[in-house]
Design goal:
Helix 13 crosses helix 14. This protein folds into two domains: about 240 residues, no CATH class; about 260 residues, Phosphatidylinositol (PI) phosphodiesterase (TIM Barrel, Alpha-Beta Barrel), CATH 3.20.20.190. It starts with a helix and ends with a helix. It is α/β, with parallel strands linked by helices and about 525 residues long. It has an eight-stranded parallel barrel, surrounded by four helices. The protein is elongated. GO terms for molecular function: glycerophosphodiester phosphodiesterase activity. It is a multi-pass membrane protein. Belongs to the glycerophosphoryl diester phosphodiesterase family. This is GDPD5 protein. InterPro entries: GP_PDE_dom, PLC-like_Pdiesterase_TIM-brl.
Length: about 525
């Protein structure tokens, strides 16, 4: 018996050596110390540092989850940095990679620590890992603080994501508690006092009970009875199809039409000589070759150029060079050649294209700057183009601009009046509003249903990720503005859709299985 125990201990030493070596850089057996029954698992200094390790893990996990769910808005983040730095780079992707690496590193350290505790070894984290832990903790807290200040709406995205991921996060949390039951049980058994055992086991059981009961307060519009799901939301191409072609160009809108988009969204600016054209930014620097043609005018407002100047600019080569989206696929040779030859697009041409394909149009209309000839007649000039030059059927126009709305209704009663913010139903009906155009962070199933009862539909922008589109679908949204028409068009039903009965079975089976496994671990 003694020989067998010695042999088992000898055979186990390489495993412990690896754990201690990676965690403490103590590869030799004489460098390690076992935890005596009833004693603390590590010295006072290490006891104080272990919560920092756990804290670094928690903060890095929160940041990784938050930034992973923010993928829908990576293009906005990169565009913000472009405005401040003056050059385009996929900073969002770099930040995601760094967050994933740091989380993986700190998770491995925590797993090593739990394994050493389970083997009854004293903890001693090497000084290099302590520095690494401080770096992860500092980076995660700093990044969360900066993003909260500059981009606080992203926490609304996180809250929305819980409506989709909560059932699966619940299963993951229960699984972690099952894995933690082994070191908790070992330390409880080794404790020589009942009070110490209660201190170890009590918080663990309290957290476990809390996790078991969380589903009672969980809500997701995608957990619903069969047959209650509404129609799939219509897809409106945001500046066309900017993942497949240069934004706000003819090619971009043609790509949206090719992939079955139901509408087209754009941004309208008026040139110095009164020609409405499509441009999102206030300058031409990002989406044209103005830097090559007129290097001294790169900072000038786009509305201060004449149409003769604008129409000579190239509006496509930047797309192939900068690659504005990290998830862009490779373009065919024909698409590359077509993209390289795109020019600034006139509003009248855009409207004729939409009318010929029977597509809805919605656009942000930018007022020209001070001293612009059309500063005070910008809406009138835009209406002239829509009504007299384009020939588009009025019911295809979703009129969003709120200034002079009464005048617009009198001149073009066929427009679908659209509001860009929430308001009481009575006020919307008084202004003949038939559609709301809202940021997706304002998504609310209750509000959407309330407006729908008054025949006011809801469009959300900008929805790119399948999980977010699924949530919008389940919430009853009528349409979404998206950069990814080609992706979302292929979804035949919402992701994560399940009935309440299916979810209850998943919840109960998870809890029962975990109770059985934890009971066996404590019994053994």
């Amino acid at each position: 018996v003694v020989r067998r125990h010695l042999l088992q201990r000898y055979e186990h030493q390489p495993f412990i050596s690896c754990l201690a070596g990676f965690y403490s850089c103590r590869w030799k057996r004489y460098q390690r110390r076992r935890t005596e029954p009833g004693k603390c698992c590590c010295k006072t200094r290490e006891c104080m540092f272990f919560p920092l390790l756990v804290g670094a893990f928690c903060f890095s996990l929160i940041f990784l989850y938050m930034w992973g769910e923010a993928k829908n808005d990576y293009n906005n983040f990169d565009w913000y940095n472009y405005g401040n730095l003056g050059f385009w780079f996929l900073w969002s992707l770099v930040l995601l990679i760094v967050a994933a690496i740091l989380f993986t590193y700190i998770t491995l350290l925590l797993v090593l620590a739990m394994c050493l505790l389970a083997e009854g070894q004293q903890l001693y984290l090497h000084w290099s890992h302590k520095i690494g832990t401080f770096l992860v903790l500092g980076f995660s807290i700093t990044a969360l603080f900066i993003l909260s200040v500059l981009w606080g709406d992203q926490w609304k995205t996180v809250r929305l994501s819980f409506q989709i991921t909560a059932p699966y996060l619940h299963i993951g949390a229960i699984s972690i508690m099952v894995l933690l039951s082994w070191p908790v049980a070992l330390h409880a058994i080794r404790a020589d006092k009942k009070v110490v055992q209660m201190i170890i086991v009590g918080p663990y059981l309290a957290i476990l009970l809390f996790l078991f009961l969380i589903p009672l307060g969980m809500y997701s519009p995608c957990i619903r009875e069969m047959g209650t799901l509404g129609p799939k939301p219509a897809l409106i191409g945001h500046r066309g199809a900017p993942m497949l072609a240069p934004e706000n160009t003819e090619m971009s809108f043609q790509k949206t039409i090719e992939h079955g988009g139901d509408g087209l969204e754009t941004d309208v600016t008026i040139s110095y000589d009164g020609v409405p054209f499509l441009m999102h930014d206030s300058t031409l620097r990002r989406t044209t070759n103005i830097n090559e043609v007129y290097p001294n005018d790169t900072a000038q407002n786009a509305a201060l150029f004449s149409w003769d100047t604008l129409k000579e600019l190239n509006a496509g080569t930047w797309f192939l060079k900068d690659k504005p989206f990290s998830c862009m696929g490779s373009l065919s040779r024909a698409d590359q050649n077509q993209a390289m030859n795109q020019s600034v697009y006139k509003l009248s041409h855009f409207l004729r294209l939409a009318d010929s394909q029977n597509k809805l149009v919605i656009f942000d209309l930018y007022r020209p700057p001070e001293k612009h000839p059309y500063r005070n007649s910008w809406i009138n000039r835009t209406l002239e183009v829509i009504l007299n030059e384009s020939g588009i059927r009025p019911h295809l126009v979703l009129w969003l601009e709120n200034d002079m709305r009464s005048f617009v209704q009198s001149v073009a009663p066929g427009f679908q009046q659209t509001m860009g913010s929430k308001a009481p139903v009575e006020d919307l009906l008084m202004d003949n509003i038939v559609k709301l155009n809202l940021a997706y962070t304002e998504m609310s199933s209750e509000d959407i249903r309330k407006y729908a009862e008054a025949n006011i539909t809801t469009n959300l922008y900008v929805v790119n990720e399948p999980w977010l589109f699924s949530l919008a679908w389940c919430s009853g949204v009528h349409s979404v503005t998206t950069n990814a028409v080609h992706t979302l068009k292929n979804l035949s039903q919402p992701l994560f859709l399940m009935t309440p009965q299916q979810y209850n079975i998943m919840w109960i089976l998870t809890d029962l299985t975990s109770v059985l496994l934890i009971s066996l671990i404590f019994a053994l």
